[in-house]
Structures are given as C-alpha cells and as structure tokens.
Amino acid sequence: MSSLVFAIAIHFDKSLNVKMRKCHVVLTTIFAFSMIVLPLGAFAGGGHHTNGSHHLHVKYYRDKCPQIEFVVAKAVARAFASDPNVAAGLIRLFFHDCFITGCDASILLDSTPTGEPVEKISPANGKNVKAYYVIDEIKAQIERECPQTVSCADILAYASRESVFLSGLPYYPVQAGRRDGFTSRASNIIGNIPFPTMSVDAMIEVYARKGLTLKDLVVLAGAHSIGNIHCKMFDYRIYLNLTDTKVPPMVTSFAAYLKTKCPSPNLGTWEERDKVIVQFDPFSPFRLDNTFYKNLLRGRGLLQSDQVLVSDRRTRRIVRDMAFNPEVWSRKFVRAMIKMGNVDVLTGNEGEIRRNCRIFN
Ligand code: HEM
C-alpha cells in the first residue's frame, strides 16, 4: 500500500515542481535499469522479435518529444485516481495488443479500410475494456505538443508501465520506437490470444511463438492479481461437475463464496449473465502481488487456465517459487512486461505514426 500511496503522491503533489518529478523519474529509471534491464543483457533489444532493423531504446523520444513520459504518467495517474480499474484495463490492452500481430496498436483501431471486423470487437477482447479513453486523451494532448511523433503503440507501452507502477510494482524503463500497424482483424485473435480452457501445452506454444518462455507465461499470469473477471468465464467450475480431471477443482469453501456472487449458468439470459463480474482478488483488487500464486496453491484460482498451472509439473515449480518469493516475482514480472513489449514490433519505416489511435492517417 505504501508504494501505491507514494505513487499517487508523486503524481499528484502539486507542490512538486517539474524538476523534482524529472529527478524522481531519472532516479527510478536508473535504479530500475540497474535492477531489471542490465541483467537482461543481450535480450534488451527484443532479439529476433523486433521486425525491423531498428531496435527500441529507452531514450527514443529524448530529443523528439521529451515530455511524453510525463504526459502519460499524469494522464494515467489522473484516470487511476478516479477509477483504479483502468490499470488492469491498460495492462490487459497491452497484452492483447502485443499478442495479436505484435505491439503495434492494432487493438486500438475502430475500423480499417477493408471494412473487416477489427480486433477490439472480438469477444476475446470484450466490450468490458474501458481504458481506451486514457490512450485517446494522451494522444490528443501529445499531438498538440509533438505532432505525428509518438506512436500509439509506444503510448500504450508507457501507459501500461504507469499502470504497473501505480499497482505497486517497481518503476521500469520503457524502450520506445514502435510504429503503428496497418492491420486489425478480429480473426487474428484465434491462435494468438490464449483462452480460459487452454491446456498448458497449448499456452506454452502460443507464448513460444511470441518468443516468450514457460517462465514468462507463469510470471505474467500474476497480472490476474488485479482487475475483474466475468463470472461466465469460470461459473462452470463452481456449478457444474468437471469432467476434466487434469484441472484441480476449486476448493469447496471458495466455490460456495463465489456462488453468492455469480448466478448459475442455468439461470437468466446470456445478457444478464454477461453483466456479472467479480474481482480477481477481492482482498487487494488494485494491487499487483504474488497472492495470486498463493491462491492457486490453495485451489482458489478463478480461471481454469490459471489453476491448471498447478497441476502441470513444469509450471507448478514456478508457481511455488513465485508464491514464496514476492520480490523475485515482482522483478520477473517487470522484466517479462519489458520482454512482452518487444514482441514483433514495427520500427524504422514500417507502419506509421497515427494521428488518432482509432483510425489510420
Ligand atoms: C493464459 C493466458 C491468459 C488467459 C487465458 C487470460 C484470460 C483472461 C480472462 C478470461 C480475463 C477476464 C476477462 C473478462 O471477464 O472480461 C482476464 C482478465 C485480465 N487479464 Fe488475462 N489472461 C491471460 C494472460 C494475461 C496476461 C499475460 C496479462 C498481462 C500481463 C493479463 C492481464 C489481465 C488483466 C489485468 C485482467 C483484468 C482486466 C480488467 O479488469 O479490465 N492476462 N484474462
């Protein structure tokens, strides 16, 4: 909690002048750099998962638009103060953007010239995602200050870093220089976004195609310690007898509690059921922490795709490790976020810098 309060204080204390804020960011960046990025060595550039010949780097906007990180920090902190759910929303947006055709802001497009259904309307992205407005606000401001300079893909990367920080994890340097893509197809969700009933093997395969490891898979799943989930994503686990013996059942007392929050899948209409959500972690819904892993070990995972991580020998080892070492998890989570931000990025002359994140130029 203290670092959360600290984060909000940093972003909102009007008495802090810009110099001090810059100093804070510089210091935390140096600290984070030495703690998180330096040990990564060669990996920092994103390796073969950077499409173009150019690599992302931390000082990308230093001369072009030096205020970008402050603009993003302020906008996300403001949105977070009025609705802390935006942090989870932005982190999930970033994950979905990066997993579908790379971190190219394809998820932000409202339409494309082909008229095909875009990514954001796919049920896998869900109409529940409300955080788009934060990106729109940042883009509108930054277009006034630095026209056609900062990509929507980079704004999303910065905004998710702020979200991670506001949710209590270390501030980390974001490598920038991504360009915005020209495609967005709802059909690209298939095979790219993991779904709740996926097997561990299938999840490993999806992550591997993004250059992410088994460890990254388990470490990133810890994002499910914040935010909300529709009951319909797991109600079959609490109401119906599972036939899949590979998935450990939910512990009975927790299932009984969830039944008081979630209606049976046999009751009500789909639309009614579509509205019911619960928090992933009701005890600290806005704090990224390793409670997620402790809960998995106690049989209190909501999503089948999370709980199944305990039943597989390869992933169980990592779940245990993360459950007993909160610092190790937070460091690894941040590193995995940086790594995810490098997936199949467009750089150099690829793509474009959109003026409006929702449409092509
Ligand atoms: C096996 C991989 C994953 C699966 C199957 C999965 C599935 C889901 C599902 C079904 C929800 C609930 C959506 C809803 O009910 O509207 C959700 C929420 C969420 N997921 Fe994942 N997810 C996965 C990995 C990740 C990763 C890698 C991240 C980020 C690093 C992430 C971040 C989140 C967040 C923050 C939420 C809460 C969103 C909100 O409250 O707005 N997930 N996920």
TrEMBL record:
Family annotation (CDD domains): secretory_peroxidase (cd00693)
Gene Ontology cellular component list: extracellular region
InterPro entries: Haem_peroxidase, Haem_peroxidase_sf, Peroxidase_pln, Peroxidases_AS, Peroxidases_heam-ligand_BS, Secretory_peroxidase
Purpose: Removal of H(2)O(2), oxidation of toxic reductants, biosynthesis and degradation of lignin, suberization, auxin catabolism, response to environmental stresses such as wounding, pathogen attack and oxidative stress. These functions might be dependent on each isozyme/isoform in each plant tissue.
Residue sites binding substrate per the record: P194
Full protein name: Peroxidase
Top-rank taxon, per record: Eukaryota
Biological process annotations from GO: hydrogen peroxide catabolic process; response to oxidative stress
Co-factor note (free text): Binds 2 calcium ions per subunit. Binds 1 heme b (iron(II)-protoporphyrin IX) group per subunit.
Species name: Morus notabilis
Disulphides: C65-C146, C98-C103, C152-C357, C231-C262
Catalytic activity: 2 a phenolic donor + H2O2 = 2 a phenolic radical donor + 2 H2O
Site feature Transition state stabilizer, where: R92
Annotated positions binding heme b: H224
GO terms of molecular function: heme binding; lactoperoxidase activity; metal ion binding
Keyword Glycoprotein: yes
Binding, Ca(2+) 2: D281, D289
Residues annotated as the enzyme's active site: H96
Subcellular location: Secreted
Cofactor (UniProt): Ca(2+); heme b
Keywords: Calcium, Disulfide bond, Glycoprotein, Heme, Hydrogen peroxide, Iron, Membrane, Metal-binding, Oxidoreductase, Peroxidase, Secreted, Signal, Transmembrane, Transmembrane helix
Membrane-spanning residues: 24-44
Binding site for Ca(2+) 1: D97, G102, D104, S106, E119
UniProt keyword annotation of Transferase present: no
Enzyme Commission number(s) of this protein: 1.11.1.7
